[in-house]
Write a structure and sequence with these properties.
Elements: H1 3-40, H2 44-68, H3 73-79, E1 83-84, H4 92-108, E2 114-118, E3 126-129, E4 137-141, H5 142-147, H6 150-165, H7 168-182, H8 184-194, H9 204-248, H10 252-263, H11 273-279, H12 300-307, H13 313-325, H14 330-337, E5 353-354, H15 358-364, H16 372-382, H17 385-391, H18 397-405, H19 410-424, H20 426-438, H21 448-459, H22 464-478, H23 486-503, H24 520-534, H25 538-552, H26 574-578, H27 582-596, E6 602-603, H28 604-616
Parallel strand pairs: 2-4
Antiparallel strand pairs: 1-2, 3-4, 5-6
Length: 628
């Protein structure tokens, strides 16, 4: 099952969630009506009032919780007590975690998420939360940092990235909001009983009785809530384990993490059981201890045996005895195993062109495999250390990203400098110009977008007014003359997409439903831009356009028309194309690839355009396309 099929499955799961939620609401309403009927008799007016009141409580509860999660993954992480990891942290455990997450992000082609640590949790666990990759947050317990070595931590993070890539994360956060509503009656009853001490008077027994009834009915909601979470979560956890192994190309790391969960006393349990119950469906390991029909995860032994078929139950007992005497230390194991902070040493495959096939590229979308992780690791390592440091400095990210946009022509650079001065001041403009001349001149083109991706999460920490001004500056720098270069447009569009989505994540949380036939003109425009950008000869560009069109709309005759305003013609196509059904997006990616590689090769510039198209349309590509 590829990315697009998983996205389609996630959309079907959303529909299934709505149906199950409706059934849960019906069950709760019936329970309330039965209580009213038993206590007051068949009074239609009272039954209607009870039904409407119950629906109102459930609806308002869900709306409140969804609203409280509007900030995306960051809201979930902070509500569970997560502490954000500073970009310049020197703590070896935190630095190791940040390195692993950054490499995983580059390898999978998604923005680096916000990274949090649950400092007071001794169990081994983790989760990813958010509406989209642009607002994602990854949280890891302190127990995971202390007990797991780098390969095991890598396996856990790869598992969580699978949820980010496959649409699970968006479903998980919606699940939190929706299920809160069906638990509302029980929560109200519990609160009243908790604060009922000292209540006196004639109505006290009535209030306490109503609270007790609400609490009992709340267990109906709890039952349905646990059933819904278990039904949706278990199969996705199996898929995430398999994806993590394919991503890291080794099963020992993930299996080692699961063995430590099974063998250590703390396991994967979270101390904050109330919070753990709410997020149990999005955790790496079972954080609550439910089993049977209510289990959100397959049994731990079953997960280990899927990775190591020869593993036996008695081995868990031996591990427990071993770790009771000497609990594992992840950093010490790294030293013993000779695992370095980074694995790579040189920029791999720094070719100027790539040989691709359309199915090959669509198979890579959100599906990093083979050596993608090691390549990303090497790509990060190959970046000059000074640039890596700058990408993580709050005050340096804006000048660094603007420096990447400076043109080679001196006169145009002067105009770009003036645009920056008028909006962000001379200090930012001068620093950007200095970085361009002193450190970016020798940067390989293949390293530009990975460097920018390291800076994105730091940039997103800026206040909204500053980000709005920065995006306006980027637009002005890109449009400082009548010609917008391909890379300028690509970087500007990725910045616009990722920053805007991080500012208002819930607004961008959607699965598309449009079919290819409803956006024919947008397809034609997109393919014309790709063909024109990669083929200087008009006749070759026309043939490339038709090759792409044959993939997506084989029965339609849409004549080739070179875009009059070049790559800027894409501005009109992004929103309609992003609303495409996931399987239609797969055809889109194959069509764009067919147009780009019509001449038998794809240049670095075309690869950047292809990656930008996939990024804006939420089909992330690894940073280094698979060679033919």
């Amino acid at each position: 099952m590829n990315f697009f099929e998983r996205q389609a499955q996630a959309r079907r799961s959303t529909t299934r969630l709505v149906v199950l939620f409706a059934l849960a609401v019906v069950g709760i309403v019936l329970a309330v009506d039965l209580v009213v009927l038993a206590m007051a008799g068949p009074k239609p007016g009272l039954l209607v009032f009870a039904t409407l009141a119950t629906l109102g409580i459930i609806g308002l509860g869900s709306l409140y919780r969804i609203s409280s999660l509007g900030a995306g993954g960051e809201a979930v992480a902070t509500q569970l007590g997560g502490v954000a990891i500073a970009e310049d942290t020197t703590d070896p455990q935190l630095r190791r975690l940040r390195n692993v997450v950054e490499e995983m992000s580059i390898a999978s082609g998604v923005p680096v998420p916000k990274i949090y640590v649950l400092e007071h949790e001794a169990g081994i666990n983790a989760f990813a939360a958010g509406y989209s990759p642009s607002d994602a947050a990854v949280a890891v317990t302190r127990g995971a940092l202390e007990r797991l070595n780098r390969d095991e931590l890598q396996g856990v993070i790869a598992h969580e990235f699978s949820h980010v890539l496959n649409g699970d994360m968006r479903l998980n956060i919606r699940l939190m909001g929706i299920l809160f509503g069906i638990l509302m009656l029980g929560l109200i009853g519990r609160r009243i009983l908790a604060h009922s001490y000292g209540i006196r008077g004639r109505g006290a027994m009535g209030i306490l009785g109503a609270a007790l009834v609400a609490l009992l009915i709340g267990y109906v909601g709890l039952f349905f809530g646990r059933m819904i979470k278990a039904g949706i979560s278990r199969s996705r956890e199996v898929l995430a384990d398999a994806s993590a192994v394919q991503f890291t190309r080794q099963s020992s790391g993930l299996a080692g993490a699961l063995k430590k969960i099974a063998g250590l006393q703390e396991g994967s349990q979270l101390a904050q059981r109330g919070n753990a119950e709410e997020v149990s469906h999005m955790l790496f390991g079972d954080g609550v201890g439910l089993s049977g029909l209510f289990a959100t995860h397959p049994p731990i032994l079953q997960r280990i045996q899927a990775l190591e078929p020869g593993f036996r139950p008695e081995q868990v007992e031996r591990l427990r005895a071993q770790w009771r005497a000497a609990p594992p230390n992840g950093l010490e194991e790294d030293v013993q195993l000779g695992i370095a902070a980074h694995h790579g040493s040189a920029l791999p495959g720094a070719a100027d062109e790539f040989d691709l096939t359309p199915p090959m590229v669509s198979a890579q979308v959100a599906h990093p495999r083979d050596d993608d992780y090691r390549r990303a690791d090497a790509l990060v390592t190959a970046l000059p250390e000074a640039l890596r440091v700058l990408a993580r400095e709050r005050d340096a990210t804006m000048p660094l990203l603007l420096a990447l946009l400076f043109d080679g022509d001196a006169e145009l650079r002067r105009r770009q400098h003036q645009e920056i001065v008028s909006r962000l001041g001379a200090r930012v403009a001068d620093r950007a110009a200095h970085l361009r001349e002193s450190q970016l001149q020798t940067l390989h083109p293949m390293q530009r977008l990975p460097l920018a991706s390291l800076a994105f999460p730091v940039l997103r920490l800026r206040p909204r007014p500053e980000l709005d001004t920065f995006l306006d500056t980027v637009h002005a720098v890109v449009h400082a003359d009548d010609h917008v270069a391909l890379f300028e447009y690509c970087l500007g569009q990725l910045l616009e997409t990722q920053v805007r989505e991080s500012l208002d994540p819930a607004r961008h949380a959607r699965f598309g439903r449009n079919k290819a036939g409803s956006v024919k003109q947008e397809f034609a425009t997109l393919l014309a831009v790709v063909a024109h950008a990669g083929h200087a000869d008009p006749a070759e560009a026309k043939r490339a356009y038709l090759a792409g069109l044959q993939r997506v709309l084989p029965r339609d005759h849409l004549p080739y028309a070179p875009p009059g305003n070049g790559v800027l013609a894409l501005d009109a196509v992004w929103e309609p194309l992003d609303r495409l059904d996931p399987l239609a997006k797969q055809v889109l990616v194959e069509a764009v690839t067919a147009a780009a590689m019509h001449d038998g090769r794809v240049s670095v510039a075309e690869a950047e355009l292809l990656r930008t198209i996939c990024g804006v349309l939420h089909c992330p590509l690894p940073p280094m396309l698979e060679h033919g």
